[in-house]
Design goal:
This protein is mainly α. It has 6 helices and 2 strands, in the order H-H-H-H-E-E-H-H. It has a domain at 15-111: Arc Repressor Mutant, subunit A (Orthogonal Bundle). A two-stranded antiparallel ribbon has the order 1-2. A hairpin with a 7-residue loop joins strand 1 and strand 2 (97-101). Helix 2 crosses helix 5 (103-123) and helix 3 (58-65) packs across helix 4 (69-81).
Amino acid sequence: MIDPRKTIMFQIRGVSLKIDRYVKSQYPLFDHDAGHISKLQGMSAGYIAMNDGEEIFQRDLEHAMSISKSTASGLVKRMVKNGIIETSPSSRDARYKRLMLTQQAREKMQQVSAAATEAENSLRADISDEDMNKFFEVLNKISNNAE
């Protein structure tokens, strides 16, 4: 019988939970339970901010966040309700709604970006660039195997 502690699924889940707890404890800005936006909403807002100047649509979030169409639909509705994004018709095709950060979200993203960079640097402490490159290479292989 396989030892579950030596499986990819067990290890990734455990590391993910540890990272979530660490980030929430060190960076209250990311604590959804304290009234802040969810991790998925924050990551989606970051994606939209990173692609400022481009037309971003719901389907882009589906792909970037690896979520289903129905999850993305609910996500967009919650982000609009929470004042994070607003929608407007695309300049290329009015059937599509362009997703844009609100001014309030743009201002908040500066704080979020600084905290996320600090958290990422903290998690990467004592890990060489070579090890990080190998880590991402292996994660990509695992991801590809899971498709």
